[in-house]
Amino acid sequence: MRLYCCVIALLLMACAHGKSTGPLVFDEAAPSTSADMSADPPPDAADLRAVRWHLLRAIESHALGQTQQAQEALDAAFGILADLDEHDALVDTVQAATLGLAIERAYFDLLPHLERLPADSHLNLLLEGLFEEKIEHLPADAEPLVRIHQLGRRCDMPIDANDRVVASLRFFQTPRGRKTFATWLQRAGRYRTLIVDILRREGMPSDLFYLAVIESGLNPRAYSRSRAVGLWQFMANTGRMMGLKRTHWVDQRRDPIKATEAAARYLKKLFAEFGDWRLALAAYNAGPGRVRRAIARADTNDYWQLDLPRETKNYVPLFMAAAVMAKDPQLFGFKPQAEDPAFAYEEVVLPEDWQYVDLQAAAQLLGIKRQVLHDLNPELRQGITPPGSRPSYVLRVPQGKGQILLDQYASLPTSQKAAVHRYQVQRGDTISGIAQAFGVSTRVIAAANSLRNPNLIRPRQMLYIPIPVAPKAKQARGSRGTYTVLPNDVLSRIASQHGVRLRDLMKWNGLKTTLIKPGQELVVRQQPIPQEMPSGETYTVQPGDTLWELGRRFSVSVADLQAWNGLKKVLIKPGQQLIVANEQAYTVVTGDTLHSIARKFGLAPSDIARQNNIGLSETLLAGMTLQIPR
């Protein structure tokens, strides 16, 4: 009951904080009681409602004594939360933090009943598990202490042989900790050389590598409920202080190279202040201010005598134990195992005329899985490189693939790439009007352009508008476009992809909530699908159309559509007639010359000649068809 009361209270706090967050608010469609747990999992398992759903399922399973199911549900909830931080800059931070705390507390309550911890246990869970280990007072010649003395000599960090370090060693030898440490040993091969080289270059002890090991389990996408991320678990403020950029497009705390360089600088700064690596590590975990106050209260700088939070009391011994065990894992009962291959890549400086690179399209071109590019570039949050990056973005690709990307990516059809439109704000524009015109939410535009106040945009300001690539909709009877829901689809995203309003999509499909299921067939266009005119010249705007969608349909740019139709803004209305082609056909009659035709259309003869790839003195024959540029 204590767990129920604690977590339900936190969930109620999350609901209270989420009243104005738009589509991410918990609503009556999301399960809120244990009676709802028999339903299928939320199909749009990429939002905070899904996190809450799995958390509530874990609570119910724990109450019924179903420990494994409860652990699986908590792992699912925490995984979704971490993924949201990675891919969605629009997640309500208050709700996310509250749910993260609730998941952690639920895990702590479950901890005594777990036979083993998950391989990707976050640090607080490890420290809580370690706190339950019994501290035994051993004689100085006890075998564990002697072993620490012997292996400690091989470390370039101070290693203390005492009862608390022994407790940490034993924790890693229990069923709970063994799987976690074995996973760390396997992953060490991927990042050891990279991290140690940076540490040595910065003049730091190479065994600080094991700090990254205990912080993140060497998982660059590691995430804590306090929203610390990456190999070195930087908080946003500390990362910013150390020069790590975080925008809608990138989070450099997740980049193994940039984050390691920042961590080396930060640790060097802490060591310079405290003059002792034990205190520096404690400050890395708890913050330098807390360590300063503990030193002042105790009137000593002996780490082992300081009154620090219990997590920090276990943090330094945990580091020392990991460093010692890694020197000779077999001595502690770990079987030899192959390590992951080293982090290897080739860097490609993207040409300045490429606005961005779509990772999915690039992966298909290179004949690799998208996940490979994502693993090499974990700082990327949106599946594309930052649009308009200056200086040019440097993308990591598998070795030997760089020249292929440079030679072939630019020739890929636009339809195969994610779409990001550059729009120059016009006088009188509003962020909501621009969002409506492009079929996206105002929050997407605000996040993509780091707008602190979306209401403050100015004429001639350049905005990037991310437009999701729409899956191909199949044609159903009556010429209505339909779409089959895929796993992890979200209704608002489907609406955006097809250029229709969410409320229209719900109305056409008789939906009272935004919950959808994989395999469900949705009507995504109620009106007949407009066909291109035989001449390709004009088009009548239909309900739900956006200028961007029409540009993609007729293979022209939004800027050209605006220019040809005298549009200062990107808003269009149903029934409006638009010119959708940049040329028109003209049949030559007897007596026509290039100059006379040019005068007829108010153009220069050279414009028509260039459009038709002919010379200015070309003889025109009656019946010849010329393309006249608009």
Task: Give your account of this protein's structure.
The protein is mostly helical and 630 residues long. The protein folds into 5 domains: 2-114; 129-332, Lysozyme, CATH 1.10.530.10; 418-466, LysM domain (Membrane-bound Lytic Murein Transglycosylase D, Chain A); 467-575, no CATH class; 583-629, Membrane-bound Lytic Murein Transglycosylase D, Chain A, CATH 3.10.350.10. The protein contains 25 helices and 11 strands. The protein has helices at 2-17, 48-63, 67-87, 93-110, 123-131, 143-152, 163-173, 175-201, 209-216, 236-241, 256-274, 277-286, 288-298, 310-327, 359-366, 370-376, 402-408, 431-438, 442-448, 491-497, 502-508, 547-553, 558-565, 594-601, 605-612; strands at 346-349, 394-397, 419-424, 462-467, 474-475, 481-484, 521-525, 538-540, 577-579, 583-587, 625-629. A 3-stranded antiparallel β-sheet has the order 5-6-7, with no helix packed on it. Strands 1-2 form a two-stranded antiparallel ribbon. Helix 12 crosses helix 13 (288-298).
Give short descriptive properties of this protein.
single chain, mainly alpha, Lysozyme, 5 domains, three-stranded antiparallel beta sheet, two-stranded antiparallel sheet, 25 helices, 7% strand, elongated
